[in-house]
Every structure is written in structure tokens, then in C-alpha cells.
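Weekly structure sync, notes
Attendees: PL (lead), two postdocs, one rotation student
Agenda item 3: pending single-chain targets
PL asked that the sequence for the first pending target be pasted directly into the notes so everyone works from the same version. It is reproduced below exactly as submitted, 477 residues in total.
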Amino acid sequence: MFFNSIAFAVFLPIVFLLYWFVFNKNKSTQNALLIIASYYFYSCWDWRFLFLLVFSTFLDYYTGIQIEKGKSERNRKFWFWLSISVNLGFLAIFKYYNFFASSFSELLNSAGVKASPILLNVILPVGISFYTFHGLSYVIDIYYKRIKAEYNFVDYSLFVSYFPLLVAGPIERATHLLPQVKVKREFSFQTAKDGVCQIIWGLVKKIVIADTCATYANAIFDHYTTMNSFSLILGAIYFAFQIYGDFSGYSDIALGVSKLFGLDLLRNFNYPYFSRDIAEFWRRWHISLSSWFRDYLYIPLGGSKGGLWMKVRNTFIIFVVSGFWHGANWTYVAWGFINAVYFLPLLLSDKNRNNMDVIKLKWNFDSVKVLFSILLTFCITCIAWVFFRAKTITDAVLYLKRIVVNQEFSSQYLDNERYNYELILLIGLFVLVEWHNRTKTEPLSGKGNIVKIVLAIAAILAFGTFSDYKEFIYFQF
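Predicted structure, written out during the meeting:
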């Protein structure tokens, strides 16, 4: 079930009404309803993988309790590593086994040794990377005594399987979400109103921006060998806005839906394309994943406390692992590696935490420098996105090479495709709206919000009627 589907438009109001008018007597009945709704939501994709979600939930619930009860360090470690191994084992089997088997076979064949990989005929369970990380953070926090184990299975199950964040995040922490599910929620009209506005804005990002850009980005990337330099640059920009609108749109909808149920989720995006350097970009893009790797990988590896070599090593590890988390393809690893290379000069010059303030522009030379740094950061981000979008590393390299070598900047693709100029104007308008809203938590709030909402809904209906895309990009991760 997709957030941008008719089925979800029917599903959400039903759950909302049951939640506040039938199951509203205590938090246990509220949580039970949300679990049932979450399992149904997940089953709509493929009910056969529901067992995997339930098993993962029970595993981390049980091992968490055993870790807390463990009378010896040896016993605590046993349950800790059992949970880690099984969780990562599921990821390895469903997400990475075929990739490693094929890559190893290709390596042997290139060395003159004939090999045929034994591949598994399995599909990737949607959301497995997200709910696995929910469970891992919970178990790790218990092991290091940051939190207590949750003994209420219903409460813990809701933390793991809560449907707005189940298949594409944000990646929640037990310290943030569990305390909320353990108390009864009271209805707030203002919070619900804010939630509806955030849902609408998320749908604008997905349907109006992401899905429209996808049509053009796909056409360019799929035929990049025939495109000139200008068209290829456009393709990279289109994809940059496609993935931003798609993923941040999903996150906005997830946060908005949660507000309808009185729950607050972690913010996942904070206007990343207005970043002044790549370090700021990663503080603003997919915030829940970046902070997860920081807290559970970078810091345990030593963080920035060691010498220069340790800082560089740890930086490359988290970026490469982050790339690999996105998918079983060398293109994602290359994407992570490129971002690590971008980050390295800031780390070496100790400038990776320079831009922590809110951007304010004035009519002076400093503002010109700020705008230039934003544009430069966006450009290098688009270069990295080419590797994220391409099917192979070779395709990505040839795509970028053709931009440099071709050097034809006529309006080739603009003239061949309908509504191309209109799309550029639409993206420009979207950037202006985002810039205006960069200090707001709710884009459709403030003066004239009724007009904004009406225009947003009209755009959703107009563009959604002709959209060929439904699935969110991050469902595949």
C-alpha cells in the first residue's frame, strides 16, 4: 500500500476514526489497533513476509530482556550477539547474498577460474533495512545500559512495526518513540491540522515534483549515449529533485500521519539542497540514518578522538557502509565513497562543523559567497547522484564523461520533449517555496494557508491524474 494510493486514502480515515472514537479508552487499545493496522498495511505488499517482521520483533524483544537480566557479561554478550547476528543475517540473505555470490563468481572468472554462482530465488522484503535498524539500535542501547528493556510486547511491537515509518523510515530510536507509545494519547485539533498540512505538502513533493521529474530523468538516463552535455546536466538535476521530492515527501507524509495519532517522529530532512558544504548536507539529508551511523558505528569505532588516520578511516567506513546500506550494487558503494572524498577536506581542515547556523542573506559580498557555496555543494551532490541512479559504475562514468567530452549545449532534449520548459519553471518555483519555508516546520502554515492548501490539492490532483509512478524510491532499500 502506497501513501499516494486510493487504498491508503480509504485506509487512513478508517484507522483514524477507530483510533479516536472506538479504541480511545486507554493506550493499550490504541496500540493494539495501530499494530493491527500496521500488519495489514505491510501485508498489502506481500503477506508472506509478515512472518519475518513478526519474528524480528519477537527476537529483539526477547533478547533485550535477556540482556538486561543477564547475570554475567558472558551471558549478556551471548544474547547481544545472537540478536545482532540474526538481524544482520536476514539482511545478508535477502539483500546481499546474490550480490556477493555474483561478484565473487565474476572475480573468479576474470582470474581464469570458471565459476557459476548459486543464487537464491528470493525478493527483497520491503522495509527490511529500516525495521532491522530499529531493532538493532534498541538492543545495542540495552546492552550498553542506555535504556531499560521493554517488557510490554504490544508496546515494543508498535515501536518496530508502526506503519508510517515501517517501510521507508525515518529510522526511529527507542529513546524517542517508546516513551510516546507507553502513554495514552489525547486528541489535539491543532496537531491533527498540522499533520494534514504536512501530508498534503508531502504529496506535492512526491506527485508534483518527484514523479514529474522521474519521467524526464528516466528518459535521459536510459538514453544517455545519445544526449548532449546540456541534456545530461538536466538529467542529473532532474534526478536530484526526483529523489529529494520522493524521499522527503514520504518522510513528510509519515510525520504528518503520525501527528494524526498523537505521535511525534524524528525529522528526516531539513532543506538539504541549501547546504553550504557537504558536511552540512549530511546533517540535513536522511537525518535519522546519518545520526544512526554516527551513534552506532562512527563513535564506537573511535569517532574523531583518535589520530588523523583514525578520523579518515572512520569517515570512509561510515560513508561506504551507508552507501552499501542503500542497495546491493557497486554504484551505491561508489556513491558513498565519493561523498567521503567530498567530506575529507573539511575533516582535515577541521571545518566540518562550520555551518551550523541558519542561513541569512543580506545585500553584501558575504551573501554572494554563501550562494556560491550552496550552488557548488548542489553541483557536486548531483555528480554523486549520477552514481546512485546509474545501473553500473561504467554507466555512471560514461554519463559524466559524455558531459565533459560532448560539449554541446543546445536545447536538444528541451526541444524533443513536451513540457520540458514548464518543468524547469516548476522546479524553480519549488526551490523558491522551499527557500521561503526553510525556517518553518510546517510549509503550509501561516498567512493564506487555506489558499496554499487549495492550490496544493489542485496540483496533486492535476499532476496525479497523469502520473505513471506510484512506488517510492526508498521502498527498494
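Discussion points:
- Residues 6-187 form one domain.
- The two ends are 16 Å apart (CA to CA).
Action: rotation student to compare against the earlier draft before next sync.
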